[in-house]
Amino acid sequence: MGPRKEAIGDRHLTKVVSVRDVWKSYGKVDVVRGVSFDVEEGTTTVIFGPSGAGKSTLLRCINMLHPPDRGTVFLRDIDLMRTGNKMNYYRSKFGMVFQHFNLFSHMTVLDNVMTGPKIVKKIPHDQAKAIALQALAKVRMKDWCNHYPSQLSGGQKQRAGIARALAMDPEVILFDEPTSALDPELIGEVLQTMLDLAKEKKTMICVTHEMGFAKAVASEMIFIDEGAVVETGSPEHFFTSPKSERTKRFLNRLTELYGRHENRQKEGSC
Amino acid sequence: MAILRVYGGRAGQLFVSAYERVLRSIPPLVLIFLFYFGIRTTVLEIPGFFAVALALGLCSSGYQSQIFRGALESVGSGQMDAARSLGMSRLEAIRSVIAPQALRFALPSWANELATMIKDTSLAFVVGVAELMRRTDYVRAATFDPVVPFLLVAGIYFAIVFPITRIAGTWGQERKRLVTGT
């Protein structure tokens, strides 16, 4: 792959993740069809597109949760398809936050966050606890550390999910529609947490339809439909002059939806 | 067995499902006869108690495997995804995330199966292993009283089985409530 540093202007950017021509099919359906893109260190990449476009599958290919059928993903210099039995180790370099939280329901919030460091990194109990508490403090969930997931609101669950990912000190965090399963009034707290992380220059790849979030922190946006990249660009590019008709239509739909949504909230308040 | 069935790939699944199907289709009494007379006369002179225990154990394993399979499947693939995303191997994920939850789901039905098996031990009577039933029958023969000894033995079985199902039932319900939030 050659040296993985490129000079752009006078800034030196380091590629953390390079997705190269990734293909994935389930049965006879090609879900992801030849996707390639790079993620620079300390940036946020937003992936969006209609449901069933293969966004979640793509994320699962990136951390080798479901390794791609063809193509590969690089984590810095490492070809993840050639890591063999160290694949689990490299997977731990990716944090993942799920649409439906997937917190371990038989564990308290603290145990949820401690489990990764303890079992995967073999960190001793006390030290793992300290790491977990620090991660929970960052998402403002420290007070809830002895609760079980079933006792939390969706927003709290998702913040605990983010803490669980953070506790592994990952190189990249993958967000799979982190706010799609939340009540509208709970979305804010999760987005705020994600904004904080973006400001701290954590490298993030977010599948989300929160265009406000994308506008605020995304350095690159990728529109995906039918398993392939339709259009790539900055938020400005997408919100002022999207090229493809498909992108325009989709963005209009989103605006329409959010417009209606705001009206409904206003009606509700009087 | 159940882990093999759910996570064991195609061959593992076929093997276990055949195993379950065969064992669940054979009455325990037939298995007992097969082991007691079959093995003891042809292969190895094992104690009668051992033959019966083996037969009942095998018979029950077919059901237990099914119980645990159901429990494992009820845990949901998201839990596996989350555990693996932290870098756990499949085995680590099963041990620390999937199995503890599955056991909680399985406990009530597993206790039922245990109760059934305890009651099935009375079948050992027919091949002459001196278990509870056989001894009671000695008492009946000695006292010529068919009612009291068997009522007593019914009471003993009840006293053994009832606490098991009761404790497992309430404990399972409590844990389940905490886990699912209902």
Overview of the molecule:
The complex is a heterodimer of chains A (270) and B (182). The longest helix of chain A is centred in the C-terminal third of the chain and has 25 residues, at 245-269. Residues 1-11 and 261-270 of chain A have low confidence and may be disordered. In chain A, 39% of the residues lie in helices and 27% in strands. Chain A has helices at residues 55-62, 87-91, 109-120, 125-138, 154-166, 184-199, 211-217, 235-240, 245-269, and strands at 5-8, 11-26, 29-40, 44-48, 70-75, 78-79, 94-97, 172-176, 203-207, 218-225, 228-233. Chain A folds into 2 domains: 5-93 and 172-269, Rossmann fold; 102-169, no CATH class. Chain B is an all-alpha fold and 182 residues long. Chain B has 8 helices and no strands. Chain B has helices at residues 2-7, 9-25, 28-42, 48-74, 77-85, 90-120, 132-143, 148-180. Chain B is flat and about 70 Å long. In chain B, 26% of the residues are buried. The model of chain B has no long low-confidence stretch (mean pLDDT 79). The A-B interface holds A 60, 63, 65, 88-89, 91-96, 98, 100, 102-106, 115-116, 119-120, 148-151, 164-165, 168 and B 78-79, 81-89, 92, 96-97, 100-101, 104, 175, 178-181.
List keywords for this structure.
heterodimer; A: 270 residues; 2 domains; 6-stranded mixed beta sheet; 9 helices; 39% helix; globular; B: 182 residues; mainly alpha; MetI-like fold; flat
List the helices and strands and how they pair.
The complex is a heterodimer of chains A (270) and B (182).
Chain A lengths: L4 E4 L2 E16 L2 E12 L3 E5 L6 H8 L7 E6 L2 E2 L7 H5 L2 E4 L11 H12 L4 H14 L15 H13 L5 E5 L7 H16 L3 E5 L3 H7 E8 L2 E6 L1 H6 L4 H25 L1
Chain B lengths: L1 H6 L1 H17 L2 H15 L5 H27 L2 H9 L4 H31 L11 H12 L4 H33 L2
Helix pairs in contact in B: 2-4, 3-4, 4-6, 5-6, 6-8
Task: Briefly characterize the structure.
Helices cover 39% and strands 27% of the residues of chain A. Chain A has 270 residues and is of the alpha/beta class.
